[in-house]
Design brief:
Helix content: under 10%
Distance between the termini: 22 Å
Radius of gyration: 22 Å
Largest sheet: 4 strands, mixed
CATH topology of the largest domain: Neuraminidase
Structural class: mainly beta
CATH architecture of the largest domain: 6 Propeller
Strand content: 35-45%
């Protein structure tokens, strides 16, 4: 019969305390403070863990997509009854309410960090029939109106920081008459900290997709596009600073996913898909050429822009299935855990 020493070349050791999970992967030990417990560590490519709830449940909010897992903002969105102007900041432990936006709205494009962010476009009425070109900038304590976008829109693909941001595609509904005509935008605009410039058009106009990256290295993933077919897209396009190129599709077609990363290393999590429009838990990883499914979210949701961080440390907050959804989850990759075998 094989023994641990025969396999590993050493005996099971006794330790006064557990090593870190990453240091312990591949080993077995006894903790001398709990001699009846045999312990070992495992690793996985990544996993989601619960974090503190946001204070005000909502969906379709903007987020500081250039922020980190431990320092990020969410702003605007839609509650159970109306558009909201609320802003919340996450410090790695809890969410705190900060100064409100000047204009309550949902589905605008967010980017930046917790101390310097931008919220661009969105819809300002509860029937989702009037899109805006309004832009507000955050300085760490207050929102100020700044230069409007060239094209009014909402639910576009967004990425970047407060001095170098990008918004692509999306939908326009001018509200005169209410709700029509609907315009699926191809335009891409970049922000340099003071002005917007139009650059290369995206190939497939759509809205409610997941954007991630920078103004020179961005992915636009999935989205919706009725009355165009398909209703939900698996399409992915990559931006190099001037032009868009179609790359490999997502494994799961969806809208309203949340992303992190860039064109060679990205995550897309959650979203929604017809005909039920229920939230999705699917998380996919991109290596620069293809997508593969990794660990699912604990709670299926469509969260749009309310994510930030990197492919090794990402955060996602709020969203649907309900307008008052408050749950937050954090992604770790690689994910390490210490396991205990109780010996009787």
């Amino acid at each position: 019969m094989a023994t641990y020493k025969g396999i590993k070349g050493v005996k099971v050791v006794t330790k006064a305390s557990d090593p870190t999970a990453s240091e312990a992967v591949g080993t077995v030990w006894y903790n001398s403070t709990s001699p009846s417990a045999l312990k070992y560590a495992v690793s996985s490519p990544g996993g989601w863990a619960s974090a503190a709830n946001i204070n005000s449940g909502r969906n379709a909010m903007g987020g500081s997509k250039g922020g980190s897992q431990t320092a990020t903002l969410i702003f605007g969105g839609e509650s159970a009854t109306a558009q909201t102007a609320l802003t919340e900041e996450f410090n790695g432990t809890c969410w705190s309410e900060e100064a409100d936006l000047n204009t309550a709205r949902r589905a605008g494009g967010g980017f930046g960090t917790s101390t310097a962010a931008l919220f661009s476009g969105g819809v300002t009425n509860t029937t989702h029939t009037i899109s805006t070109d309004a832009v507000e900038t955050w300085n760490g304590s207050a929102w100020t109106e700044t230069t409007s976008m060239g094209t009014p829109r909402y639910s576009g693909f967004n990425a970047g920081i407060a001095t170098a941001g990008i918004i692509a595609s999306g939908i326009s509904r001018p509200g005169a008459p209410p709700g029509s005509p609907i315009g699926y935008r191809l335009q891409t605009e970049t922000w340099n900290g003071s002005a917007w410039s139009e650059t290369g058009d995206i190939n497939v106009g759509r809205y409610d997709g997941g954007g991630t990256g920078t103004t020179t290295s961005m992915l636009a993933c999935g989205g919706a596009g009725f009355p165009s077919a398909p209703l939900n897209h698996a399409s992915v396009e990559s931006f190099n600073g001037s032009t868009w190129t179609e790359v490999n599709n997502l494994t799961t077609a969806r809208g309203k996913a949340t992303g992190a990363g860039d064109t060679t290393d990205a995550l897309m999590a959650g979203g929604t898909s017809p005909p039920t429009w229920a939230g999705l838990a699917v998380t996919e990883s991109y290596d620069g050429s293809s997508w593969s499914e990794v660990a699912d979210l604990a709670t299926a949701r469509a969260a749009n822009d309310s994510g930030a961080g990197t492919t090794s440390a990402m955060i996602i907050a709020g969203g649907t299935p309900a307008p008052t959804f408050q749950a937050t989850e954090e992604w770790e990759s690689p994910f390490y855990a210490i396991k205990t075998v109780t010996i009787s």
